[in-house]
Amino acid sequence: MDNQSSYDSMMDGMASEQTRTTTPGTTPASTTTTTSAAAPSSLRAPVEGARPARVAPRAWTARLLVVGIVLAALNLRPAITSLGALLEEVRDGLGMSGSVAGLLTSVPPLCFAAFGVMAPRLARRFGPGAVVCAGMAAITAGLLARPYLGGAVGFLAATAFALMGIAVSNVLMPVIVKRHFPDRVGSMTGLYSMALALGTSAAAAVTVPMTEALGGSWRTGLAVWAGLAAAAVLPWLPLVRDRGTEAGDAAPGPAHEHARGTRSPAGALRVTRSRTAWALAVFFGLQATAAYITMGWMPQIFRDAGVSASTAGVLLAVTMAMGVPLAFVIPRVATRLPHQGPIVVALGGCGLVGYAGLYLAPAAGAWAWAVLLGIANCAFPLALTMVGMRARTGAGVAQLSAFAQSTGYLISIPGPLLVGVLYQHSGGWDLPLVLMAALMVPQTVVGVLAGRDRTVEDEAGR
pTM of the predicted model, to two decimals? Predict the structure, then answer.
């Protein structure tokens, strides 16, 4: 079966699952998990007598959601990787020092931490679909404006506006998947993670040649990505009126019950009391540190080693492209394991070897290091999958997603900035690469802790 036929079959399967009718006050058969007996508790069948997490959408709504999720995911990283490919030209054009450029590479996690925490509250008031739609519009406006505002301050401000849209969409993607596709969390997480990786790698690969084809101006090369974001607005427009009043939405409510059968009052879940939530937040932060250092600085590492600008962009694209197949496979495998620790260890090992290669022979083994670091960066879809697995309800996923991503991105802020400072003051990449490799060790440790089979409701909802 070819790729298109496989995609159509998956779409039809999702649509048929969503069209099954439910009776209020009962647990629909379609929400019963089909994973193996060893599946984590967060993915097992709901408690008998619990209220269904959501009313199944019609077939056309399910298809529209899939299209919207894929298009939104495609736009969650080009704002960053397109800039990484042209960072040297942007620095020269705006007169940035190495430290200011390091600050620029720290803006994404800063915005994700600051704005991501707002997503659950916005979703409660306006509905997740409306918030994602507004997020795509913000990305469009920010990408279109930032090359032409003039000066580093205007560039940073417009970039922050686009990243605000990315931040709220980052948080709400797991919520939307959990609510509308509760029996396909692994498949849908893999699908949008794959689309995210595809958008990331495409922006890294084609930004430089596209800039040259459009006349050589870095401003045009960055602004053109606003067109992709504008296309992502369209499928979310019909979903704007979906206010999300069901239990699976962003707000916890009295209808949510613990697996023990005890009722959880509204607002009783405090994720900060959960060790698993903290482990997941730190894991998310450290993998984000590695990812944004890679996206922001990897092309420069290769260019300083004698690799051409276009080849450096392609190498970054290779790193990002590794996430396309793996981002679909890893969540599906993770949901079938009682403990995700072995996956965490394997990804961490690839990262350590990749950093060692960049330290010892950055140009000679460039393609191998790009592949290994691309595998290591697949800690991101794994972290997103664990967000959906470590909470039992849609409300729990919303709170855990906001906490883990906002706290994690806050943790990741100093990394890219510190790399820029070390690079400028040491005159090379030895110290920054040692730092990157050192951070991979605690990332692996907390990832193993976050991968244990337990839920935040069990730890924090007492």
Answer: 0.68
